[in-house]
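Students often ask why we bother encoding 3D structure as a string. The short answer is that it lets us treat folding as translation between two languages. Here is a chain of 170 residues written in the first language.
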Amino acid sequence: MIAMVVNSGYQCVCMSDVPPVYKNNGRVPADYSGCDTFDHISEGQEDWKLAIDHCLFTQEDTGCEFVNEFEAVISRWRASMWYLESDRVLVTMARVPSDIHKLSAREQDVLKEVALGKSNSKVAESLNISLSTVEKHRSHIRQTLHLESEQELQLSAWMVENPDIFHQLP
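And here it is in the second language, the structure alphabet:
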């Protein structure tokens, strides 16, 4: 998860971290201080603007989703905004799988079971399928969603099944 402070002009005041693809290109959080946040949103700019404006005007927590495109990497992010002061909001952002729609219905069933923390054998039992089928589905899900590890699969599954969890943080 990445946190940043954004001002009423939609500029980054400070940032906690940068996505791995940015780090791989030698970028650090300080590089984005004062930058226009719209420069890093390829889809969802209007939702971003409305969410920040809403948070500043009403002092109510809100959120949105947006797409970031950096070189050949396209990723979807879920952002939550919290009011800090008259011209600043705290924004937390977490990457969500952008290819979720490419999963089959059965793979989505497996993903839901993974989100519950079930082992492969428990998933097989719940869905009445073989253990090897569960393993194949999990492998294909990781491949489709471009996830590198089992931990990323588990976190992504949990985020997909709990999309508004970040809005409930204090």
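Translate back mentally: DSSP finds six helices and five strands in the chain. Keep this in mind for the problem set.
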